[in-house]
Amino acid sequence: MEKDTIIKINDPDYPAALKEIYDPPALLYVRGRLPDPARVRIAIVGSRKVSFYGTRMARSIAEELSRAGLVVVSGMALGIDTAAHEGALAGGGPTVAVLAGGLNHIYPKENLKLAKRIVETGGALITENPPEMEPLAGLFPQRNRIISGLSRGALVVEAAKKSGALITADCALSQGRDVFAVPGNADSRLSGGTNWLIKEGAIPVGSAAEILEEWGLAQPAGCEAPGRPEGLKPLEKRLLKAVEAEPVAVDDLIERAGGPAREVLAVLSQLEIRGLLKQLPGKRYSKTK
User: Fold this and answer.
1) Is there a domain that residue 28 lies in?
2) Last-in-domain residue among 168, 186, 214
3) Residue 251: enclosing H or E segment and its boundaries?
4) Does residue 234 have a cis bond before it (omega within 30 degrees)?
5) Cα–Cα distance measured from residue 209 to residue 66, given in angstroms and rounded to the nearest whole number
6) Given 183, 214, 245, which residue is the final one in a domain?
7) pLDDT tens figures, 175-232
8) For the domain that residue 61 is a member of, what is the CATH number?
9) What is the number of other CB atoms lying within 10 angstroms of the CB of residue 13?
10) Distance between CA 289 and CA 286 in Å, rounded?
11) Cβ-count burial 122-135 (b if 16+ within 10 Å, e if not)
12) In terms of Cα–Cα distance, which of 3, 88, 14 is closest to 45?
């Protein structure tokens, strides 16, 4: 493992984007390697308490963005952050984790192995606090400005209305960054924050392709735009076939799909976001024309 380094704000290796924010950290403690500054970075954040849908969306979007050459930045918390880092690693690219505490106090302990993988695969752990600083509660909101400051934009995947991820979104807005949000069910408490962000002007997205299109970046093979049926997974194909002839009630779809109800509902939501099917009154779904 590479030695930890300290980067001062006047050093040439200090991230230029971070230097531009209102209150950039004077020092950065780094374990690993900072990604090539020419590569576009995107923050992917969300709540610690997440649904199957949120985890799946975070992983898949992060993986596709990583394959497209983007660097995923997050906070290595449980939930969405962890899914984002794991998705980025699955996509073959480096990822950056911004810590609240020092480098000798990896938090949470459940992510010690993830932290090691991030460094070993060419990414980095970053913090503004000295190595022995414990991750006190008040340090987490402060580190959020670094997550967004390093990035061209921030994607909030799933977050309740009081989630700390909304602090990151607010930081991104104040720093002039784009803010994206993944829509969720209107009655889902876990999506209350993301749905509110969209209402307030965040860009709604359901795939990596939409972010790449918004930024005018090339899409990698297999990163299909919404509405295109290529590359569908078996469960997605079964659900689309079930509603091909006529609208079908959600309970019947769950029975026909033969999978766990939570997973089927999550996939239905994703297909709706991608524009492949639509929800009708009476909790019925039909295929879009």
Assistant:
1) yes
2) 214
3) helix 250-257
4) no
5) 12
6) 214
7) 999 999 999 988 899 999 999 999 999 999 999 999 999 999 876 655 554 444 556 7
8) 3.40.50.450
9) 12
10) 9
11) bbbbbbbbeeebeb
12) 88
